[in-house]
Every structure is written in structure tokens, then in C-alpha cells.
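Dock 2-acetamido-2-deoxy-beta-D-glucopyranose; give full complex structure.
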Amino acid sequence: MARLLIALGVLLILQIASSNKLVCHMTNWAQYRPSIAKFTADNIDPFLCTHVIYALATINSFNQISPIEWNDEQQFSRLNSLRNVNPALKTLLSVGGTVNGLSPFIAMVAKPESRAAFIRSAISYLRTHNFDGLNLAWEYPGHNGSPLVDRERFTLLVTELSKAFEDDAKDNRKTQLLLSANVAALRPTIDKAYEVNKIAAHLDFINVMTYDFHGHWEAATGHNSPLYRSSVDSGSHLYHNINASISHWLSLGAPSEKLLLGFPTYGRTYRLSSGATDLGAPANGPADAGPYTRTAGFWAFYEICDFTTSATVGWISEQEVPYATYGSSWLGYDDQRSYSSKVQWMTATNLGGAHVWTLDMDDFGGYFCSSGPYPLVNHLRMSMGFAPKPTTTPAPTTTRDPIAEFCHGRPDGLYENAADKTTYFQCFKGNTYLHRCQPGLIYWDSCKCCNWP
Ligand SMILES: *[C@@H]1O[C@H](CO)[C@@H](O)[C@H](O)[C@H]1NC(C)=O
């Protein structure tokens, strides 16, 4: 009975939270960035996002899901142990990328038996490593393959996956695995890749990649992730913005509450080729690579913080996003102000929430921007109206102080709160978190759980 009540309570919480998702991606290549930019699952704040997506796994020649990095499985366990700290956190494994320049999805979706092999392997792998779900990151169905054929095959894959997830949950009496996808933002790509209403019915949420709208591959400066079109746009560029992209998804029948708006924690750079420095100025290639991300064409937000201290910063008011120039370098990026504009637009459009690409490009350690750890994602969380995160000094409580000191010198784990048995302490990395049992239940140290008095 107690278990049932707890389960109901959890369901209720999930129900409320489902209208407000903050999904954050992390990448397994961020561990190779130098010095203080090195990022692993240990750098994740367990209370920052509602979901964390681990990118990236691949598909092997036997059509099985498989890891890429030598330490992926070690990182899975670090990531999924964060749910001991925040039981509401959901984690998903993302599969995608390319093998010899081609998406591994192309061969896998081609035959019913190879799809079945992939689906079997995915369920078993996700369960073994304690993930809550799978994220499909095929960029894109119909690109390099056969457009209309792969569009239909992607629908088949999504439909079969969701059916198999349903069966797995029933057969094993477990919570059903979540299914999501990263999807294109540009109209011609969307039209080639997706049968929108068919896939939307089977996906729990859809991460629209509303960034990379413009970049150094173009001969004039443009913004990475503008909210609206600008007056220098013409032709197909009229649709290279968030408003046009999400409108297209909605017009094709995607339910707004399943669409998540993509928030980049990076900007895109250009090398200016004349004296002009505004939007649409002539350019020929990217600015220098950042010292930490070491790839010409984009800078992580922490690199941007360094750049903007000496650069001239401007605001593109038509598009509600900032840009910055210094010498011949031009940067279109996002900051707290543009995030706020986008959240406002997202709320007015009734979207299901936000997804962030990526945690590891925000100033996750707070070393660069003088605004504490995760200045962008924390701002996003706050703008979306989430309750404050549990902190070392808990919100109103009947327990006596000094609670914040409780975990100093104690090993990670759960502890009874002698002053109030309806609550309990959790120690994690020296921080104290105070949790409350479901109404009517008290904490029992014997099972490290809440149960009837
Ligand atoms: C946003 O998109 C809608 C639908 O395509 C369009 O009617 C509207 O003019 C756009 N708004 C702006 C400011 O571009």
C-alpha cells in the first residue's frame, strides 16, 4: 500500500512536470577538452534539468546499440547515480552520429529484422545501464539515403520502438522507457525527413534543433539561432529562424506540448572581409578556433565570456539576439537576455519546454563568466518558472538549524533527521539535501526509505 501511494505520488509529480521539460544534452567528447573545460558526468548538477541526454552512442554492424568512448559505461553509471540525489531526474541515451560519413541508421532501418535486432539490443542496453529512455539523433532521415523511403522507414522504427517499449514495461512491470528524437529545423529538411503526425504520436518529446541557422559556410554574417527573420533575409533565408521553424512543425500537425525549443550554449563565428561589422556583412570563413573547443566556427559560452569583455557587443533587435565583434571576428550568440525572449515566445506558443545543446558548453564550473556555475542553464531554469533548486540551506522547514552543516565529513548516502521523521537527509559530495516523505509516511533508516509509521 505504501509503495502504491508512493507510486501514485510520483505519477502525479510526473504529470505536472510533463508540461514543463528542461532537457539537457551532454557530450562524451567534452571530456577531451583541456584543463578547466574538461567535462564529464561528474560535472552535472543533479537538480538543474528535468532530463539529461547522454550523447552519443552508435549502432554496430550487427545493428546493436553500442558505446563509442572507452569510458562510456563508467560515465553512464556516474550519470545514473545522480538519480539517487534527485529521484525525479530522467536520463536518456542518444544514438546517432556517422560511421564512415554515413548515418548508421540508414542500414539498420532498411529491413524489419535489423530494426528488430536494434530494438531488442536498445531495450536490454538501456535497462542494463539504468537509463530511463532512448533519444534518436539521426541527422537526417532522407539525407544521403533515399529520401522518401527513409522517411517511411523512420516512421516504422519509431512506431516499432514505442510498441516494444510498451510491451517491455508490461512484461517486466517497469516504468515505460521514454522515446525522444532530435529533429531538423529547416523546412526542406523537415519535409524530406519526417511524417510528422505519425512520428509525433509515438514520441514522448521532440527536440527541434533550432540552431545552426547561419554559420561561416555562408558569405555574409548571420545569427546562429535568431528568434525571427531579419530585414537582410531573402529567399529561403526567410525561414532560417525559430519562429518559422516551429511554425512549420506545428502546421504539419506536431502537438505543441511535445515540441521542445532548442537553446544553444554556443555561438557561431565569422571572419569579416570588409570594414562592415553588422548583420549581413561580407565574410569569408570562420574566426579563430576557441582555446578550449579548438574547432573553428563556434565558441562555447565560456569562451564567449572571455571574448565579450574586449569586443563590441550589439543587439539585433529584429531577431532578439546579441552579437559581438572585435577586429575581423564576428560572433552571433545567446545570452541571458535572448534566452528570456525565447522563453517568453516558447510559453506563448505553448511548447512542452526547452532542450539545451549542451551542458558542457555553458560555463558549467563558473570559472569564466563571474556568474556562478551554469549561468545560461540556471537562467533558463529560472525564466521557465521552475521552483528553486534544493540547496544546502533548505526552504521553509520545521527542522532546526544548522542543517547545512549536516553532511560535512559524512559519506554520501541517506540519513535520518532526528528532529523531523517526515524528512530525511541526503549527503552528496559534502552537500546536504533535505527531502520530505510522501504525506503520512516517515523515514526508516532500516530500509533507507519512507514507509508507514
Ligand atoms: C512568425 O511566424 C508566423 C507564422 O509563419 C508569421 O505569421 C509571423 O509573421 C512570424 N512573426 C515574425 C515576427 O516574423
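Observed: The CA atoms of residues 151 and 191 lie 9 Å apart.
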